[in-house]
What we know:
- By secondary structure, this protein is mainly alpha-helical.
- The protein contains three helices and no strands.
- The protein has helices spanning 13-45, 54-68, 77-103.
- The two termini are 33 Å apart.
- The model has no long low-confidence stretch (mean pLDDT 91).
Amino acid sequence: SHSNRVSTQNLTAPERMMCAASAGMACWAFIFPADVIRSKLYAKSLTTQAPLTTSDGIELARQMVREQGFKSLYRGMAITVTRAGPVAAAVLPVYDSVLAWVSS
């Protein structure tokens, strides 16, 4: 039954902000290794003429793990995930306000 679902309209602003913070932190924790690879590929693209491909990213990940271990894919994650919570919580009320303004 759908009757026990929580609607976002039933949540207070602080509750919605906590949900946004949790979602932002979970998202960054999940995608962080891919973002590390993306950042390193971008830096590499600035020094090479050839376009980089998906296989370059896969090879870079393998090289990082081989040379520095799996921890290399997570270096800096704690601060990024910690920062993601307050950022998402702060952005949500702005989004809600703009959405209400545009919808009116």
